[in-house]
Amino acid sequence: MKLITRSQAARPVTRRLAVGATTAVMAVSLTFGGALATTAQAATSPAPTGIVLGVGASESQRVISWYSAAGTPQVVQLVPTSKLEHGRFPKHTTTFPATVTANTVNGGFNGHATIDGLKQKTSYSYRVGTPTGWSPTYSFKTRDFNGDFDFLFFGDPQIGSSGDVAKDGAGWADTLNVALKANPNAELLVSGGDQVETANTETQWDAFLAPDKLRQYPWAATIGNHDVGGKAYEQHFWTPNTDRSAPFYNGTPATRSGGDYWYLYKDVLFIDLNSNAYAAGSDAAHVDYVSKVVKAQGSKAKYTVLVYHHSIYSPAAHANDGDNQLRRQDFPTAFSNLGVDLVLQGHDHSYSRSYAIKNGKKANADEKPAATEVATGPGGVIYVTANSASGSKYYDLTAPDTTEDPNYGPDPLNPKSHWANSVENQEHVRTYVKVEVEKDKLVVQNVRSSTCAGPNAAVELGNVSWCGPDNGAGPARPVGSIVDKVVIHPYRDNGHADSPQGHDWLRQDGKTGLTLTSLS
């Protein structure tokens, strides 16, 4: 398994750029600062586009990705915002060299650079490009590298799925604005997958990437089934510690996107899986990947959070998909035994929060539906499915159907819901999930980011016939109101790494005691 580690990341350099003849500079030298060291004018080149601030391997790192019309050497300039001189970068500015490769989607180029060595509680400003073609200047803030923090989780923007890219983009931008106005100190934006409707359609990517919030807060990308069909996802998002070997792709890596990756952020080990790769042993490969990462990194974190696209406890249209039935066999026991605390999923364009699930069964038969406080117990895992963050598409809740899957029937305490889910909700309004990470608990909230009014494309275009609580019988609740909130008390026994569901599950040779048959 090849992992890109922090020690392998690009290190900052401060230097002058040797600009080639293709930039038509008249025998002069340029600095990377705000002024050109010349009396002649250099030819300009197009500024990079599609810039997105990505999560790094740790709190002190970010990855910046972009598209470019030119394949010439490019860099990221970074400076503490307080060091800008009347909005201009100082003459001697720290730069990070970029990797620029030919873009297989639009014929241009895509680049990325890892910026490392960030200091805590600091505002930074950055720009991307060359002295003949800089992007606008963007800023982000680091927070305290220790202690509590909040992150936001977004389900399926899927720009273009309503049939109107502009409306979908407007709803997506509004959710980001609403969420970050309410939570300006949120530290990560975590994706549930399906950024766009069609993998290689750049007009959809342009609308997804339009909000400047994606250049101010780190986006932890997740690949969905609508992202996987081409290379645009990988070209837009460079992720840390990524294993791009064949089992983590659904199809050839030469033409499709994929990969599993992980990162540490304060007290959380995040592991992100390409759940599109599930057939022919890929689930076993995912489990092996999670096992190895937990063994190597789990002792550095208090919580383990898994993120992937396909909700295995779907409450709506995808509840009984064949691939989800397979994942329901392959994943839960492994996740319980590996000490996973929280699983974040998308795909079903509706909201659900599971009971504490241990080894694929309800951990505590007495846990009541919609409980506001849950102690998971040893091996207990909470699974959350996020609703649409853009309003481009909603799926209505389905009734449990044992003729489709005899193992995914009704909840005895609430027969309208599937047995695994404590809460299932669909109001045809945009929502996002807020997760508070605290010393001894996780707090999960599903928050409304719209009413029935626009921007809410699926409602505006008549793609759904009602809106509001109780299948439209009640009026829409206000923006910022809470759909669901739960305080989770994860199980701990002498620390995360030594808990029965963590350390003991891993054999001394680093392999799991797991076979696919043991998960059925």
Automatic annotation (TrEMBL):
<dbReference type="Pfam" id="PF00149">
    <property type="entry name" value="Metallophos"/>
</dbReference>
<dbReference type="InterPro" id="IPR015914">
    <property type="entry name" value="PAPs_N"/>
</dbReference>
<keyword id="KW-0732">Signal</keyword>
<dbReference type="InterPro" id="IPR029052">
    <property type="entry name" value="Metallo-depent_PP-like"/>
</dbReference>
<feature type="domain" description="Calcineurin-like phosphoesterase">
    <location>
        <begin position="151"/>
        <end position="351"/>
    </location>
</feature>
<dbReference type="Pfam" id="PF16656">
    <property type="entry name" value="Pur_ac_phosph_N"/>
</dbReference>
<protein>
    <submittedName>
        <fullName>Calcineurin-like phosphoesterase family protein</fullName>
    </submittedName>
</protein>
<feature type="signal peptide">
    <location>
        <begin position="1"/>
        <end position="42"/>
    </location>
</feature>
<dbReference type="InterPro" id="IPR008963">
    <property type="entry name" value="Purple_acid_Pase-like_N"/>
</dbReference>
<feature type="region of interest" description="Disordered">
    <location>
        <begin position="493"/>
        <end position="520"/>
    </location>
</feature>
<feature type="domain" description="Purple acid phosphatase N-terminal">
    <location>
        <begin position="48"/>
        <end position="142"/>
    </location>
</feature>
<dbReference type="InterPro" id="IPR004843">
    <property type="entry name" value="Calcineurin-like_PHP"/>
</dbReference>
